[in-house]
Each structure stands twice: as C-alpha cells, then as structure tokens.
From TrEMBL:
Xref: CDD domains: AKR_AKR9C1 (cd19081)
Pfam entry (one): Aldo_ket_red
Protein name according to UniProt: 1-deoxyxylulose-5-phosphate synthase YajO
Organism field: Methylobacterium crusticola
InterPro entries in the cross-refs: AKR_Detox_Biosynth, NAD(P)_OxRdtase_dom_sf, NADP_OxRdtase_dom
Domain NADP-dependent oxidoreductase: 15-314
C-alpha cells in the first residue's frame, strides 16, 4: 500500500479512508467489526469518525460509532498501531455540549478517548466552525492536547476558505499548531464549493484533504436512477437533489467510463477523487463486506487520462437541481 502524507502532520495514510458514520447505525456491531477487519487486512489504515455519530438516530445520544470502534480495538490487541484514527469535536451533543471553546474541547476529548478505548487520537478535527470562540483559544486548547500526547495532529471540517485562512494565519502568528487537514464535501457530483476557494488554499498551504460524501450519499453508485428512487431511504434528503436530468445524464457518462475499465460507477467515482491533485483520501462508507471490497477495488483503479478528462468535463460545478 502506497501511503500518502497528511499535510505536514507526520501521519501517513492510505488513499481511502473508511467513514465510521455507519458504525452502530446502519452497520450493527458484528458487521462493523467485520468491516474494520477487512479494511485493515487489505492494507488500509485510515478510519474517520466523530463524537456526534449517530445522534440523529432516534434513541441514540452520540458516541455510538466511537464506542463500536473502541470495542473493536479492545478485541483486536495490536490493531491500534495499525490504524490512523480520526475523530471530530464541536457539533451539538446535547446538554450544552457543543462548540470549540477550550472547556468544551477538554471535556469532549476525554469522552472520545474513553469511548475509543485509546490513549491518543491521531487526527482531531473541528467538526464545524465556531464563530463564537476566538480561533486562538481553540488552537491553544489543541496545543495542550498535543503537548499532553492525547492528540497528534488537528484538522478542520466544514470550514469556509476565509475562516480556514484566518485559522492558518493565527497559528503562524501565535506559534500554535495549525490545521493540517481539511474535510470538505467533495465528489464528482458536488465540486464547485471546494474547487473555487478551498482547493487552491489547501494546495498552497500543503494541507491534507479528506473528502466526505465522496459518493454523493450513494448517488454515484448508480443505484438511484429516477425521481423518487431514494424515497424512504436513510439518505433520501441528500440524494434527492441529484435526481434530475443533468444528474441522470452524468450517470450515463459514468456508466460508460466504468464499462471501459471493467469497473463499477462507485469505483470510478472514487478513483477520480484519488487521482485529483491535492486530495489525500476520499472518505467512503460500507455496510457490508461486499460493498467494502468494491470500494477497495476502486482505490486501486487507475483511470485512463481520456476518462479523467471526460468526467472532468461532464461534472463541473454541481449536479444538484
């Protein structure tokens, strides 16, 4: 496995990151363990989760995904050193637990470490911007965690370019740890927001980039091919905006490229991201070992230059209606 540097963090990660949002939600514990086992056995090492996963599920409180990963690590002695473990802080966990104030971070990291059953988090990410807390205060909180060995590197998710630029400037001016990684929404179906301002900034500053919704919540797998096809599904609200004439036309192009490479649409969509300059690793989830094997094959797929150009031309901006 050819590993890639994650910004200037010193961490090296596989070109595919497993998205742990499904653990304890659409993948039960036994399935989650099997998925993590297969992922590591295949030579991949990057797992991403968040403290808030999966608070949106009725009856869940948040922390379910981290707890599943923690129990897997406990049941697999030695596996902690085989993975780069990423989680996030800052989303609303209820009872006033949200944001990036130092006290909030200090409490949240202890909760995450306990659920994950580990002494360190490799990549700790601000899940969303907190305009109410001065950036320097947030970075100083992270500095303490890095000094104490509880966190190795920090990253940002869902940050606008101007705020990410400001955070990098504050870190440089105050001699504080900087965000080494950005986690934006980015895929063949949703390109405009990232490419317009965030991509140039990340490449200029040498930040790692790990994209979420890399398969556009399942749209780029090709399983939704008519209006209303996602009705009643867990990700209906995310997929529905792509179910329009432009989206369907793009799926036809994706099908053609996939057929030329003996691959599936999902594999082509992942391979395009992995080939994108400046992108470290797309994040993708699976709820069965068969689905995961498809993703693994996509991470190993090399697209012909002509295919990359066709996909580039057909997918500019956003496919949303």
């Amino acid at each position: 496995m050819d590993l890639r540097p994650l910004g200037r963090s010193g961490l090296s990660v596989s070109p595919l990151c497993f998205g742990g949002n499904v653990f304890g939600w659409t993948a039960d514990e036994g399935t989650s363990f099997a998925l993590l086992d297969r992922f590591v056995e295949a030579g991949f090492n990057f797992v991403d989760t968040a403290d808030v996963y999966s608070r949106w599920v009725p009856g869940h409180r948040g922390g379910e995904s981290e707890a599943v990963i923690g129990r897997w690590l406990k049941a697999r002695p030695g596996h902690r050193d085989r993975i780069v473990l990423a989680t996030k802080v800052g989303m609303d966990m209820g009872e006033g637990r949200k944001g990036l104030a130092p006290d909030s971070i200090a409490g949240a990291v202890e909760d995450s470490l306990r659920r994950l059953q580990t002494d360190r988090i490799d990549l700790y990410q601000s899940h969303t911007d907190d305009p109410e807390t001065p950036i320097e205060e947030t970075l100083r909180a992270y500095e303490r965690l890095i000094r104490d060995g509880k966190v190795r590197a920090i990253g940002a998710s869902n940050y606008a370019a101007a705020r990410l630029r400001e955070a990098l400037d504050v870190a440089a001016r105050a001699g504080l740890p900087r965000y080494e990684c950005l986690q934006p929404e980015y895929s063949l179906a949703e390109r405009g927001a990232y490419e317009a301002e965030l991509e140039p900034l990340c490449r200029q500053e040498g930040l790692g980039v790990i994209s979420y919704f890399s398969l556009a919540a399942g749209f780029l797998t090709g399983k939704y091919r008519e209006a209303g096809a996602a009705a009643g599904r867990a990700r209906e609200a995310r997929v529905a905006p792509y179910l329009n004439p432009r989206g369907f036309a793009f799926l036809e192009e994706l099908d053609a490229v996939a057929a030329e490479h003996g691959a599936t649409p999902a594999q082509v969509a992942l391979a395009w991201l992995i080939a994108r300059p400046g992108l470290t690793a797309p994040i993708a989830s699976a709820t069965s070992v068969g689905q995961l094997d498809e993703l693994i094959a996509g991470a190993r797929l090399a697209l012909a230059p002509a295919a990359l150009a066709r996909l580039e031309a057909a997918s500019r901006g956003s496919l949303r209606s």
